[in-house]
Write a structure and sequence with these properties.
mainly alpha; Receptor-associated Protein
Length: about 325
C-alpha cells in the first residue's frame, strides 16, 4: 500500500468520524438553539407586555386626570349658572358698548320723555296712551336694540372664531408657545375676535393662568364655541395631551356646526319671510288708511272704546308675533 492510498483512507476515516459526531450531537445542538430562541422570545414577550401595561397605566392616568379636569370645569360652570342671571351691565359689555349703566339709563329716559311729548302734543293722544308710548320707546326699545347688537356681535365672533383656532393649531405645530399664538390672534384677527383675545392676553400678562383667562372669554362671549374652547384649554393644562390635535378637531366641529346653521337658515328663510309679511301687514294697512283718510282712525286715539280696541289689537298682535317667532326659531 503506497502513501497515496494511506492518505485517502485517513481522509475517509476523518469524514466518517465527523459525520458520526455531527449525527450524534445534532439533536443536542438543535435543542440548545431552540431553547435559546424560546428564551429570547419569552424575554421579548415580557418586554412587550410590560410596555403594553405601562401604556395602559399611562392611558388610565390620563383618562382619570381628564375626567377630573372636566368635572372641575363642569362644577365651575354650574356654580356660575347658579350664581344668578347676567346683569344688564354685563349685557352692555357683551354687546361691545363702553357706555356706563347710568348714562344708558339717562339716554333711555330722554328718549322716553321725547316720544311721550311727541305722542301727546303732535299725535293728539291721551295721557295714558302717550305714557305707554314713552315707556315702550324709553324702556323697551333701547334694551331691545342692545340685545340685538349683542346677538349680532356673537354671530360675528362665531363666524371668525374657527379661523382663530386654526391660527393656534398652525402656530403650535410650528413650535410656537400658546401665548404667542394668542398674541397673533389679538393683533391680526378681525373684530370682535381681536378685542376679546386682547383682553385674554392682558389678563395673562397680569398673571392670570390661561385656562382662567379662557373662562373669562366664555363669560364675555357666552356661546357654545367659547365654552368648548375653554374646556379644551382647561383639560390640556391639567391633564396634558396634544393641544394642536384637540383644537384641530374643535375647529372641524365648529365649522360643521356653522354649516348646519346655514342649512337651517336656508330651509327656514321662507317661513321667516312669511312671518315678517304677516306681522307687518296690519301696520302697513293702518299707515295707508291714515295717509288716505286721516280722520278715519282718529276715534281710536280720542275715545275710550278706541283705546280698548287698540289695547286688544296690541295684545293679540304681540301674542301672534311671539307664537310665529317661536315656530321659526330653531336651536341646536
Amino acid at each position: 500500500m503506497n502513501n497515496m492510498q494511506m492518505l485517502i483512507l485517513v481522509g475517509l476515516a476523518v469524514v466518517v468520524v465527523g459525520a458520526l459526531a455531527y449525527a450524534l450531537l445534532y439533536n443536542s445542538i438543535a435543542s440548545d438553539k431552540k431553547s435559546k430562541e424560546r428564551m429570547q422570545r419569552l424575554q421579548m414577550d415580557k418586554k412587550t407586555k410590560m410596555k403594553v401595561e405601562s401604556r395602559k397605566m399611562d392611558e388610565k392616568q390620563r383618562r382619570k386626570s381628564r375626567e377630573a379636569a372636566l368635572k372641575n370645569v363642569d362644577d365651575q360652570k354650574s356654580k356660575g349658572k347658579t350664581a344668578g342671571k347676567e346683569t344688564f351691565r354685563e349685557i352692555l359689555e357683551q354687546a361691545g358698548f363702553t357706555i356706563s349703566l347710568g348714562k344708558f339709563y339717562v339716554v333711555s329716559a330722554v328718549i322716553g320723555i321725547l316720544f311721550f311729548f311727541i305722542a301727546l302734543v303732535f299725535m293728539g293722544a291721551t295721557l295714558p296712551i302717550a305714557g305707554g308710548v314713552g315707556f315702550v320707546m324709553g324702556f323697551g326699545a333701547p334694551r331691545w336694540w342692545v340685545k340685538r347688537k349683542r346677538k349680532k356681535r356673537f354671530a360675528a365672533f362665531t363666524k371668525t372664531f374657527p379661523n382663530a383656532i386654526d391660527v393656534i393649531v398652525r402656530g403650535i405645530k410650528s413650535g410656537l408657545p400658546l401665548n404667542d399664538c394668542l398674541r397673533i390672534i389679538a393683533t391680526d384677527s378681525d373684530e370682535p375676535v381681536r378685542g376679546e383675545f386682547r383682553k385674554l392676553i392682558e389678563a395673562a400678562q397680569m398673571g392670570i393662568p390661561v385656562p382662567e383667562a379662557c373662562e373669562r372669554l366664555y363669560k364675555s362671549i357666552p356661546t357654545s364655541e367659547t365654552n368648548f374652547f375653554s374646556i379644551v384649554i382647561a383639560i390640556q393644562s391639567s391633564a396634558g395631551g396634544n393641544l394642536s390635535e384637540a383644537l384641530g378637531n374643535l375647529s372641524k366641529v365648529l365649522r360643521e356646526r356653522r354649516k348646519m346653521a346655514d342649512k337651517i337658515q336656508a330651509f327656514s328663510s321662507e317661513a321667516k319671510t312669511s312671518t315678517m309679511i304677516i306681522g307687518a301687514l296690519p301696520f302697513v294697512v293702518a299707515i295707508m288708511v291714515f295717509a288716505t283718510s286721516p280722520y278715519y282712525l282718529v276715534p281710536l286715539w280720542t275715545t275710550t272704546g278706541g283705546h280698548k280696541v287698540l289695547f286688544f289689537c296690541a295684545v293679540s298682535m304681540g301674542f301672534g308675533i311671539l307664537v310665529m317667532k317661536k315656530m321659526i326659531n330653531f336651536k341646536f
